[in-house]
Amino acid sequence: MEIDCPFPLYGEEFKRDPYPTYSLLRQAGPVHQVEFPSGVVGWLVTGYAAARGALADPRLGKDHRLGNDAWRRLAAIMPEPQHSTLQAHLLHQDPPKHTLMRKLVLDALAPRRVEGMRGQFEEIAHELLDRVAGSGGMDLVQSFGVPFTFRVLSEVIGLPAEYQRRFDRAWCKVVQPVGPRDPRRSAYIGLLTGLERYISEVIVHKRNNPGDDLLTSLVHANERGEITDAELSSSVFQLLVAGQEPVTNQISTAVIALLTHPGQFTLLRGDPSLLPQAVEELLRFDGAFELTTWRFFGETSRLYGREIPAGDSVIVSLSAANRDTAQFRDPNMLDFTRHPNSHLSFGHGIHFCPGAALGRIELEIALGALIQRLPGLRLEVPEQELKWIQAVLGRGTQSLPVTF
User: 10: which of 37, 50, 265, 390 fits an S-S bond (Cβ 3.0–4.6 Å)?
Assistant: First the structure.
């Protein structure tokens, strides 16, 4: 099957349901040249086996300095100096720096530690639902998803209450950069500046008021010379933004899947013990990370029969991999009894998401509380009217009006 290249990978219709497109691309082969909204032309890896292989390919680096001039000229990346100070985090590092930085966060996000905090997370969920239980309806994203994930994250990393109150939700939008000619550029720079100032103040506070938490551990690593000032600021940035936005989005996609598959919803309500298995299937069926972040070959290389120029962007489609008929039986069906379920929603290889255990627990608690506390839960508007976030990498809705 021939595919016109570069294949456009954007648009409202595409974001509403990208799976038919991914099926078309997957059937045509494992690697395709695609165009992103910024105009960047890169290479998309589809299919489960190809995705898993690419995610573990040591030739593919994550450091933005590997990107070539063609990529850098158009890529929607932060301007300097913020790019240097806020984009030096774990997600954009290669070994050996990646190995060191990953170790710094793994202890705080270890399954045993976050499991031990389950009770605190459940209290947060039920406190939020207490506020809306009698209202008969809400925007599930703004009234529950956003505050739940932020408060859980704050508990895990040790963000003090005063800094929780001061955090501006709009700062999460800085991961969607706008170009120098965009009329929103000045507002975007303003958000970046405000977030940088906030992060600096959090770091100073932790230096003066250390605790037994992840933020303090990162500050101490900086004091020991293990990570630079930029890597410290960038790590805090990644925790504050990447640590909450994807989980909020995953709550929205999971609830949409539940409410549009009444048979599976009824099955889960009747047997709450299925919840951990249901979470895995919801992650596979419509994950919050549609695509991975950029990867690059340091030198021109072949990938599944295609020659990829050095510095061209390579992106892996997790969503395409998770609906591959070669790996999953009836992959377009939501099936809470599916076993095994070796989805790639948290990635694979050395960049496997260090917060996977926390994300799973958050989803279990959020969905369990919603099912328990909100009988008759249903969408307030037709599914076709939901507004999907026009982000390149992620899936989620701007709002999710529900009634109960």
Answer: 37
pTM of the model as a whole: 0.94
Residue type, 204: V
Where are the chain's structural domains?
7-403
Q: Residues 51, 57, 61, CA angle at the centre, nearest 5°?
A: 105
- Asked if 60 and 349 count as a contact pair (C-beta separation under 8 A), the reply is no
Name which of 12-26, 182-196, 382-396 the model is least confident about: 182-196
Written out in words, the top-level CATH class of the domain with range 7-403 is: mainly alpha
pLDDT of residue 157: 96
Q: How far apart are CA 32 and CA 306, in angstroms?
A: 9
Residue whose structure tokens are 């239980």: 133
State the CB neighbour count (10 A cutoff) for residue 397. Answer: 22
Tell me the pLDDT tens digit for each residue of 255-284. Answer: 999 999 999 999 999 999 999 999 999 999
From CA 19, how far away is CA 325, in angstroms rounded? 12
Residue 181's CB is within 10 A of a number of other CB atoms, namely 6
Q: State CA 67 to chain mean position distance.
A: 22
- Could you report the per-residue pLDDT of 178-231, keeping only the tens digit for each? 767 778 888 988 999 999 999 999 999 999 999 999 999 999 999 999 999 999
In the chain, the largest separation of any two C-alpha atoms, in whole Å, equals 62
Q: Output Rg (C-alpha) for the chain, integer angstroms.
A: 21
How many residues does the structure list for the chain?
404
pLDDT at 2 over 80: no
- The reported pLDDT for the residue numbered 1 is 56
Q: Which residues pair with 301 in a beta bridge?
A: 308
Residue 53, burial from CB neighbour count under 10 angstroms (0-12, 13-18, 19+): middle
